[in-house]
């Protein structure tokens, strides 16, 4: 995923910053505890496609 794209993307729920997890191919919003998938280098920013972060993932941050 391009760094330039990461600079302009925000969480669709809270408009906060996202963190890119390259290994999991996800954009993570820690404020809303959501992980948005990245498929074929395209972020899927729909809340119904996001998964909820586990407490372990939040604590590991």
From TrEMBL:
This protein's species is Undibacterium aquatile
This protein is called what? UPF0434 protein H8K26_10820
Q: Which family does it belong to?
A: Belongs to the UPF0434 family.
HAMAP family listed in its UniProt record: UPF0434
């Amino acid at each position: 995923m391009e760094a330039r794209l990461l600079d302009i993307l925000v969480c669709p729920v809270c408009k906060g910053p996202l963190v890119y997890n390259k290994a999991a191919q996800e954009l993570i919003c820690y404020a809303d505890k959501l992980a948005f998938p990245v498929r074929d280098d395209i972020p899927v920013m729909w809340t119904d496609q996001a998964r909820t972060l586990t407490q372990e993932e939040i604590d590991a941050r």
